[in-house]
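R.M. (postdoc): so does anyone remember the format we settled on? I'll just put the structure tokens first.
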């Protein structure tokens, strides 16, 4: 049997190039290698207030975009998190087995609390427990993660090991699956920070639905330096970020890329072309899928019973092991 891979993505605004290169492109690439279960984690999204109608629409749009990016229902089981109630139920059991000190060390809570000081709620603090429940419910072997999610996966591994030792074997202990290139794409206008949906800079991120003109404009404005020398050097963060993006899209070696361009202008033009060449067919397929709401609904429902059965089996075992009847 194939090893199982699990991951999820939030429906909070337009997906950007970092989401695509760091996660979705890798999901598509590995589809035939693993048994894949991926979900739209809309329950996670409500740690920050969401307009209910907008959240529902964003969930549908994200589902359509994942299909447009190439996730194939033959190899990948897609579902919507909130439709499987066992996620929240298992999260409560895990909450009762995670020390406060471990949760206090979660850096993403501190980061999000600083960005949203008016909305520091219990759900935001508890976010890693729900993420752990997402993963452990499906007896996951591998979790494709970006560099910034490694800490949450480590907590998931810790709670699984602790639970198994305390109550008896229940959960698989998952391993990270980190892309060798593209796992952390940085902001175009501030390469010291990760490309993010929450970044307010107009030119910080390329979304998957950006026009060619907009992509060219954003890449032209991307931060570099004054050297104009094409070299993969982590100390030159802006240039390094652009080169890593080009590496992901072109499939060329670093040595080949360094010999391909005479200066930043040439690199930026080629990069903008490569990005649009990657995104144009995705955009066309996305707009086509969005015209077929019945099709989207059918895909959402297609594997739901299979997903629910796995989740139910794991939850019922955990529930029994802790003594709940």
């Amino acid at each position: 049997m194939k090893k199982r891979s699990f991951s999820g993505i939030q429906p909070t605004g337009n997906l950007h190039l970092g989401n695509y290169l760091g996660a979705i492109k890798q999901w598509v690439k590995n589809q035939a290698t693993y048994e894949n279960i991926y979900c739209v984690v809309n329950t996670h999204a409500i740690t920050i207030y969401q307009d209910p109608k907008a959240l529902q629409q964003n969930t549908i749009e994200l589902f359509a975009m994942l299909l447009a990016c190439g996730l194939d229902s033959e190899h990948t089981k897609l579902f919507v998190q909130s439709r499987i109630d066992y996620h929240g139920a298992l999260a409560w059991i895990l909450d009762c087995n995670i020390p406060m000190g471990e949760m206090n060390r979660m850096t993403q809570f501190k980061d999000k609390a600083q960005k949203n000081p008016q909305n520091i709620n219990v759900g935001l603090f508890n976010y890693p427990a729900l993420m752990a429940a997402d993963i452990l419910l499906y007896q996951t072997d591998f979790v494709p993660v970006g560099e910034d999610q490694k800490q949450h996966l480590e907590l998931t591994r810790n709670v699984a090991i602790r639970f198994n030792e305390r109550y008896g074997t229940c959960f698989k202990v998952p391993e990270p699956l980190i892309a060798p290139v593209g796992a952390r794409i940085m902001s175009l206008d501030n390469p010291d920070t990760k490309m993010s949906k929450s970044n307010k800079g107009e030119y910080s991120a390329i979304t998957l639905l950006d026009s060619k003109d907009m992509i060219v404009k954003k890449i032209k404005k991307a931060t570099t330096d004054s050297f104009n020398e094409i070299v993969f050097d982590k100390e030159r963060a802006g240039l390094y970020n652009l080169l890593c993006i080009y590496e992901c899209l072109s499939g060329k070696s670093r040595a080949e890329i360094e010999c391909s361009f005479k200066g930043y202008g040439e690199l930026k033009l080629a990069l903008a072309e490569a990005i649009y060449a990657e995104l144009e067919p995705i955009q066309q397929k996305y707009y086509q899928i969005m015209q077929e709401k019945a099709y989207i609904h059918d895909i959402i429902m297609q594997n739901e019973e299979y997903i629910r059965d796995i989740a139910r089996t794991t939850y019922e075992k955990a529930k029994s092991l802790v003594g709940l009847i």
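R.M.: ...and that's the designed sequence above, right after the tokens. Also worth knowing: Strands lie at 4-9, 35-40, 76-80, 142-144, 175-177. The radius of gyration is 21 Å.
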